Amino acid sequence: MSTTERRVAVVTGAARGIGAATAVRLAEQGRAVAVLDLSERDCDETVARITDAGGRALAVGCDVSDAGRVEAAVARIATELGPPLILVNNAGVLRDNLLFRMDEADWDTVMNVHLRGAFLMSRACQTHMVEARFGRIVSLSSSSALGNRGQANYATAKAGLQGFTKTLAKELGPFGITANAVAPGFIVTDMTARTAARLGVGFAELQESAAENIPVRRVGRPADVAGAIAFFTGEDAGFVSGQVLYVAGGPLD
User: Which pLDDT does position 5 carry in this prediction?
Assistant: First the structure.
């Protein structure tokens, strides 16, 4: 067994969608995976997919915007699985609205989950990474970081994660820790289904429309993003840090 196979990965927002696909992909590569989401019970399906295939996984309920719960969750992971040396900051929410309709709660909720959550999780895990002189932090940005109507909060948070990533790369690089971001384009998830509902169009219709404007002429799937994350967390990416990779089916204008 290689050192990579012995490493523990934490994936936030891993009950479904990109997070679930990533947790399964990392488990397939031999990692023990902490499957983290708001409710421990919501993680059961992802954990079952991993364990049924012979992998090792732990369901962890945690609000990533709560400092106390984050510290407790990371301590539990370290005790039950081992020191977390791979972190995927995937947890996210949408509170879409045009600026004049967006209230403070819409803004704060998105900032707390995306930015505060990534900060708290990274701070808690980096202690273990520094001690091991190895770490991989991957944060989920988005093509919306370039600006998107009705998403002033989400776009700001996702752009902020790119700055956060580049800063971690500089601060933590001397300790053998890399930090990168993956910025998906249109990916078929529950979150994009809710976007369709907000726009008042069918989800299938929205996918067809989006695909027409994507060079590869299809929308993305969670596995597409999981593959990029898996690269950044692996041994071969040890000299790649502070990067933002758009997984969007083509260049973005």
Answer: 52
Positions of E strands within the chain: 8-12, 32-37, 57-61, 84-89, 135-140, 177-184, 244-247
Catalytic residue chosen out of the listed positions 154, 186, 232, 246: 154
Angle at 120 between CA 119 and CA 125, to 5 degrees: 100
In a domain, 9, yes or no: yes
Kindly state the tokens that stand for 213. 């404007």
- Distance CA(215)–CA(224), nearest Å, equals 15
Domain that holds residue 98: 3-185+220-246
Q: How much helix, strand and coil, in percent to the nearest 5, is found in the chain?
A: 55, 15, 30
Which pLDDT belongs to residue 6? 72
The model scores a pTM over 0.70: yes
Q: Which residues of the chain have pLDDT under 50?
A: 1-3
| CA 37, 39, 42, 47 torsion-angle sign | positive
In a domain, 43, yes or no: yes
Q: How many domains does the chain have?
A: 1
Q: Check if 154 is active-site.
A: yes
- For residue 91, give the CATH number of its domain: 3.40.50.720
Which DSSP helix (H) or strand (E) runs through 71? helix 67-80
User: In which residue are the tokens 């900051």 written?
Assistant: 89
Indicate whether 207 belongs to any domain. no
Q: Is residue 198 part of a domain?
A: no
Supply the pLDDT for residue 68: 98
